[in-house]
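Design a sequence for this backbone.
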């Protein structure tokens, strides 16, 4: 069983913000796969259970707000007895150029409060990540920047990136994660 977590903040005021890249990509991928888009409200979030290649996959959008994302992740892990090695967290990343991405096997939160809370609640940094670059404008306070709306040109770049990331996600369910990183990480712009 796999747990795919897309990070973001609930509420209309946060739609189309840089910090909601994880939510948005999860929605895009679920649509791409043609899954039933009826999300269930439980575990302090919205979740969807699907079968991919005969394996159960849980898609989760924590609704605890970004800084408490770990609460929702921990509840799903405990309920379904999911191992840390079967978790993939999708988040925005200030250190990657806008429209780039990077797969990581493990590591520190890199200052991302949602990842920090997940690490605190699950007691490990050994979970897999798909980081989507949003760049970093040093002229804008970080909080205001990540909660800022995407411009129309940014939305186009991100939508094109989501199209590229769908086959990556398909391969995630087929390949060893090291092979997945070798196949995709070098393709960044």
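Sequence:
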């Amino acid at each position: 069983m796999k747990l795919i977590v897309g990070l973001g903040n609930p509420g209309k005021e946060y739609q189309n913000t840089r910090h909601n890249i994880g939510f948005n990509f999860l929605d895009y991928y679920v649509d791409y796969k043609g899954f039933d888009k009826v999300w269930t409200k439980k575990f302090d979030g919205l979740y969807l259970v699907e079968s991919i290649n005969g394996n159960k996959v849980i898609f989760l959008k924590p609704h605890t707000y970004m800084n408490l994302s770990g609460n929702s992740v921990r509840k799903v892990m405990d309920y379904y007895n999911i191992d840390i090695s079967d978790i993939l967290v999708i988040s925005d990343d200030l250190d990657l150029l806008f429209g780039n991405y990077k797969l990581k096997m493990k590591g520190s939160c890199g200052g991302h409060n949602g990842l920090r809370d997940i690490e605190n609640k699950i007691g490990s940094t050994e979970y897999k990540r798909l980081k989507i670059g949003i760049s970093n404008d040093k002229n804008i306070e970080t909080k205001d920047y990540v909660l800022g709306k995407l411009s129309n040109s940014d939305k186009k770049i991100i939508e094109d990136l989501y199209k590229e990331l769908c086959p990556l996600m398909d391969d995630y369910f087929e390949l060893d994660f090291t092979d997945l990183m070798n196949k995709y990480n070098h393709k960044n712009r």
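The CA atoms of residues 39 and 68 lie 20 Å apart.
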